[in-house]
What we know:
Shape: globular
CATH architecture of the largest domain: 3-Layer(aba) Sandwich
Radius of gyration: 23 Å
Oligomer: single chain
Structural class: alpha/beta
Largest sheet: 8 strands, parallel
Helix content: 40-55%
Amino acid sequence: MRKIDLRTAISEIRQAREGTGDEKSPFFIIAGAGISAPIVPLASKIAQDCKERAIKQGRTGDPHSNSPMEVYSYWFGQAFPQKIQRTRYLQELILSKPISHANFRLAHLLSEKRLATLVVTTNFDDFLSRALSLFGQAYTVCDHPDTAERVDTESSEIQIVHVHGNYWFYNGCNLSGEIEARTEDTRERSVTMMSRLDDIFSRHSPIVIGYAGWEHDVIMTALKRRLKSSLPNNLYWFCYRRSDSDPLMSFFQDHDDVCLVLPDAPVSPSSAKTKPVSKANATSGSITPGPVLSAKFVLDQLVAHFTQKAPALTEDPIGFFAGQLADCFPPDPPDDAGEDIYRLRDVIDKVKQVWEIGGK
Length: 360
């Protein structure tokens, strides 16, 4: 196992990708809560909020352990004993919220299909799907074990796998028992979430962004099984803080194919007086001691190295929307089909006029 900096990681990933020629990328993305924060609170903040709500209901006690998954699961269950309650709570956190900056960058990265086209995520939100839709990109979503068969590990199309479900349905995984149940690989179905992840890991190496790693969830379980043998390409795990590497060092047990990508080492107090604080290492909304690697900053660097053009939406927004409207609207109907009650043709014509006058 190696600890490397961001520059080295980008260089090695780029070299590995270019070495495949025009073939499908050897990498896929594992995305965690860090790509949706602070729009959606991290698990620690959700656990604290749930703890306060549970105490108000007269429900107290202590989790079985101090692991982040157990603390989150315990207080989530104490605050919201019913599955439908937990779903409604997640909807309150996510529904109608703006898309995070990191998710827009990840959507841009996927759109060009150079680094990766497959994302495996623990997130319940649909920010990445919404960002891809805004960019006019087609994609496939798997958000339940019953839909695991949709995932084609060799496809060149964009695919998103929500291993714990999404915020719309009460069959999502929030409690520790539900999370661990996703690791089961029963033979009642030919394809399960666990078997599909096994397949993904056997063919591609992960680039991990914004994910701290819960040891007994389905991603870490699949990864642990895969690392019993060597990987064709290295695993690159981008750590938010340098201290985040400590539990990972124990989990990976010095596996040769694992690279932990760390923020720069903290500067000494004397040099800090003369060196400005890097904007890349600044956090929003909180004060974090020492440098950090935010998901947004990591994705900025990946976008800079693995994309060649800006999304059409940002390059020519009026022309983009005019084309989107024209593509979606049916051709002129026959006389007996009735009139255009929504006057969409007029809308398209007005948008095109604006584009022709000032948008070109």
